[in-house]
Amino acid sequence: MILNNVSLRPFNTFGIDVMAKALTQVTTEDELREVLEHNRKTTDDLLILGGGSNILFTRNMNGLVLVNQLGGISIVREDTDSVTIRAGAGVVWHELVMHCVVLGWGGIENLSLIPGRVGAAPMQNIGAYGVELREVFTELEALHIYSGELRRFTNEDCQFGYRESVFKRNLHGQYIIISVTITLSKHPKLNISYGAIGEELEKMGVGRPALADVSRAVINIRKSKLPDPAVLGNAGSFFKNPTVSKDLADHIRQSHPDLPSYPANGGMKLAAGWLIEKCGWKGKVVGNTGSHRNQALVLVNYGHATGAEIFQLSEDIMHSVQDTFGVELEREVNVY
User: Fold this and answer.
1) From CA 7, how far away is CA 21, in angstroms rounded?
2) According to the 3-state scheme, what is the secondary structure of 126-171?
3) Could you give the residue numbers annotated as active site?
4) Cα 57 to the chain's mean position, in Å?
5) Domains contained in the chain, CATH given
6) β-strands 73-78, 61-68: how paired?
7) Strand, coil or helix: 67
8) pLDDT tens, residue order, the chain (336 aa)
9) Is the sign of the CA dihedral 243, 245, 249, 252 positive or negative?
10) β-bridge partners, 132
11) Whole-angstrom Cα distance, residue 174 to residue 237?
């Protein structure tokens, strides 16, 4: 069913109240094909939405908004050491993580409580606390929006990068993901090298952590730093951590010895949140929006902000970091 003139406020975690000319929700591949065929005939603009957790609306959407709710989790194959599972693109990501943790399948426990749906995970190459999706990713199935052709993408096909993939570059807007397949370990090697996890496990009194302990530690950390979108509108980390030249990093460190950085792609990766905080934005309120008091990287909607207000705040922050440190920030959130 296609609904007309629908508010998108319930469909984005920023809680921005813009209107969609038309909206539909699909739960099966057949429904999806039918909607795509109908849309090809009308030639309306098309926007694919999952959980709406990585998007900022700055205007009304004058085409069709398609909410992907394709469900299901199934085992593709398994042996004594590993299991390969397929999940529908509309499955809530955290629910998939919890499903795997309960069954003792390791590899994505560090990605607990990341908002959004499974279909967005490979598009963003989601990552947290020393782990990225590409490390467990096997393949995905996607429909070409204009031809209806079903295509499988391997790990290599997806051209994963830092918080990006081919679907955010040259294939942007051409495919809709219908399922994602990952391979997990039945004898996982836990990744607790990220400092905050080890510290949290100590607080929890856990000496020999299991999968569930690592997941709970990550959840505790995220809850302590990141506001709940159901309470305070946000899209998690708004900016990517920038990679700069070693020379620039060394120059910044001369006046800021506490600069957090580590080698990456021939340069040095810096903490965007640290840069923003040093520019005085952490906890600052600007009109109806601001930078969160516990995590400068998170921009929030205090209840009545427009997308344009939040976008302008991001612009001001980017200019501030550029002027202060000579570092160019890049938005992680998709802006429409």
Assistant:
1) 9
2) CEECCEEHHHCEEEEEEEECCCCCEEEEEHHHHCCECCECHHHCCC
3) 163, 237, 332
4) 16
5) 3-68 (3.30.43.10), 73-185 (3.30.465.10), 233-335 (3.90.78.10)
6) unpaired
7) strand
8) 889 999 999 999 999 999 999 999 999 999 999 999 888 888 678 999 988 988 999 999 999 999 999 999 999 999 999 999 999 999 999 999 999 999 999 999 999 999 889 999 999 899 989 899 999 999 999 999 989 899 999 999 999 998 889 998 899 889 999 999 999 999 999 998 877 898 999 899 988 999 999 999 999 999 888 888 888 999 989 999 999 999 999 999 999 999 998 888 789 999 999 999 999 999 999 999 999 999 999 999 998 999 999 999 999 999 999 999 999 999 999 999
9) negative
10) 127
11) 26
The 8-class DSSP code of residue 240 comes to P
Q: Indicate the pTM of the whole model.
A: 0.85
The position carrying tokens 């219908």 is: 178
C-alpha to C-alpha distance for 95 and 103, rounded to whole angstroms? 13
Structure tokens at 269: 């990766």
Calpha distance 4→253 (Å, rounded): 54
Cα distances from 35 to residues 2, 30, 50, 216, in angstroms, run: 9, 9, 16, 39
Question: Given the structure tokens 């600069």, which residue do they identify?
Answer: 259
Sign of CA dihedral 233, 235, 236, 238: negative
Nearest to 223 by CA among 91, 112, 101, 107: 112
φ/ψ of 110, rounded to 5, equals -70, -10
Cα four-point dihedral sign 124, 128, 130, 132: negative
* Long-range Cβ pairs for the range 246-255 (8 Å, 24+): 248/326, 248/327, 251/326, 252/325, 252/326, 252/327
Integer Cα distance of 113 and 334 in angstroms: 20
Q: Please tell me the distance from the alpha carbon of residue 227 to that of residue 22, in angstroms, as a whole number.
A: 30
